[in-house]
Design a protein that fits this description.
The complex is a heterodimer. Chain A is mainly alpha-helical. Helices cover about 75% and strands about 0% of the residues of chain A. Chain A contains 30 helices and two strands. A two-stranded antiparallel ribbon of chain A has the order 1-2. In chain A, helix 2 runs antiparallel to helix 3 (about 95-115), helix 15 (about 335-365) packs across helix 22 and helix 18 packs antiparallel against helix 19. Chain B is mostly helical. Chain B has helices at about 5-25, 30-55, 60-90. The interface between A and B is medium-sized, with 12 and 13 residues.
Amino acid sequence: MSDFLWLIPIFPAIGFLVNGLAGRRISKRAVSAVACGVVLVSFVLSCAAVVQLATMPSDGRYMENRVAPWVPAVEDGGGAPGLAIDWLFVLDPLSAVMILIVTGVGSLIHIYSVGYMWEEAGYWRYFAYLNLFMAMMLTLVLGGSLAVMFVGWEGVGLCSYLLIGFFYWKQDCADAGRKAFITNRIGDLAFVIGALTLFASFGTLEFRGILSAVVAGQGSVFLLTAVALCLFVGACGKSAQIPLYVWLPDAMAGPTPVSALIHAATMVTAGVYMVCRLAPLYMQAPLALTIIAIVGCATAIFAATIGLAQNDIKKVLAYSTVSQLGYMFLAAGVGAFGAAIFHLMTHAFFKALLFLGSGAVIHALHHEQDMMKMGGLRKLLPVTYAVFLCGWVAIAGVPLTAGFFSKDEILWRTFLFSPVMWGIAAFTALLTAFYMTRLMGLTFWGKSRMDHHTEAHVHEVPGVMKWPLMILAGLALVGGFLSIPAALGGSAMPFTLERWLEPVFEPGTYATAAGGHAAIGEHAAAAGDAASAAHEAAAATPHGSPHGEEHSLALEYGLMAFSSVLAIFVLWWGYGLYDRMPQKLAAWKARFASVHEVLANKYWVDELYDALVIQNFYRLCRAALAFDVRVVDGVVHMVRNVTVGTSYLSVFWDTWVVDGLVNLLAKVVRVASRGLRRFQTGVPQSYATVMVFGLFVLICVYMYLS
Amino acid sequence: MPIPVNHLLSFSLVLFIIGMIGVLTRRNAIIVLMGIELMLNAANVNFVAFSRMHGDLAGQIFAVFNIVIAAGEVAVGLAIIIALYRNKDTINVDEISIMKG
């Protein structure tokens, strides 16, 4: 009974159609009811599907729903396999986690948006886009092949563009939307190249088929590494990693709930999801995994340092998101795919909470986003402050909160992979704690820096926005208990996310899977052996499972305690600094002015890209324009001029020679007849006079002759 | 005593010349018509004069025919002039030159 999977993405699509086509004519209440209703239906359906999945045996949790053929198979006589794509939706433990996050957090953000966007123009348009986004995101995570995933992948990109540019009449919003779209295109190109290379090599785009072929030992390491890197470049674009991260901070121009849903909780994690979805492939390409780890680690610390010096509350959170996404890629890169998805989930909780909280602050302060004009909001916005506190401790990794479990899992696995990267990641965690404390300090603590008018009108959020915040705050605090690490007694728990997800990343799962492709069927016997061999090899490397290394238990405890103490110390020290010692802060700022300058300007990366890429691109465009104007137009104009010139000659010949001969004849006749015309005056008297004169002459002649 | 034929011919000549001058020089179409009438009557006088000289009545009969034809000619001529006046608002023969080449 997996035939209903397609209903999960279809409901928000219906909501999109209703709101998109009729939203202008129906009331705001109806728009909200439709938009939130369809997402809630999706959430309920997702829960039902996941419950059904959970009742299956742990190594066979796999449901697929082949809805309809999309591109039918073409029978060609040759050996090359024809392209056949089906609308295939697949639910396995990984997509189960994703649909619960997407529909769960999505529902909360939809409800929150009702309050946040109530006063905005284009209310129905906003919810139509948001529903379309949900449909596309669910297509992305449920898609059973790279092709279906790519539909969702591009769809969420489109919705991201539409929603960033929601206030399209503001130039910077429209520019930010375009920047996001174009930057994503670069990554998507690499994604398509990777997907088509996979198709060319294995003859299928379906994940099962690809992964079966990979674990069966098909495809050289070089091919797999190249494909893995191409797909990772796509993930870099979507998930804002170096060097394609620049669009995400600008994307904050969109409405704040959009930042929470698309640019923190769901869409930007699509890249992480895709890498985890193809985990067995990446395991066969250790070089690609190492590169992912390095990029993730570099992005994490790079974005965290920029986050230290931003004054826009949403920009801080945006760089924080980039940094946390770096963590996820770091986890995937060191082979801890479960930890990556776990951090993806906890991050969705606390970052959605922080964004929605910042939205509450911005809403309360009448669209003021500059933290330098906030301060002292603790007393004015008690509920927002309380939920923000939950997000703050969760992202900083205070023990027992969501961020603690997921981040320490990543740090531990990173330590096993490379202590140097662990050092960088741990330092990033410290920076994270610090910039979040700075955000709290500038927003909620200390003295108010608001003007009187704003301060007088500060109001706490309405209930429709308060409840989603509280639910997310609860999730941010306790969400981590879904996956207690083995070292803290997780193996005794009835459920951990780690164990739930394990079969998805296990190459052995795909060894016996029916790939649905003839070539794989032939190799089925060999596939089993090769896959188990690959699995043993993987287990022996640091990418594999670390279970059974008891000697390191003490080390794990030590690292955990170290990062916890560090986080708590930074929070405590930062609280003191920002709440009570502004002059010390100012002195610090003056001392590190040059560093602050570099960070506040984001390392001038935008300017660098502008100089290196955009200006050169413009130059290329101008060269193309010049070529077009001079050469292409020149040829066209030359042809035109030649035609016009010969036409002139033709006209000359026609006018002067052909017409001339005719006119000459007429002219000769006219000139010759000019004298004769005199005689015909039309006056009878003159004729009569001539006649009398002639008669007289005749008579004279007659008389002279006779 | 009978009037000698020379006198009659002279009178006819004078009458003809007066009519001819009237036809050739006057611009009013009615005067032109009257000139034509004079010339016709000069011819009638010639007919009658030679009829008397030869004692033959054929000339006088010709004169009577001539008078009848002159009456018809006047009727048609005046009708043309009236039609002309209605269409052109003038009976000045110089202005009526639509037959000009």
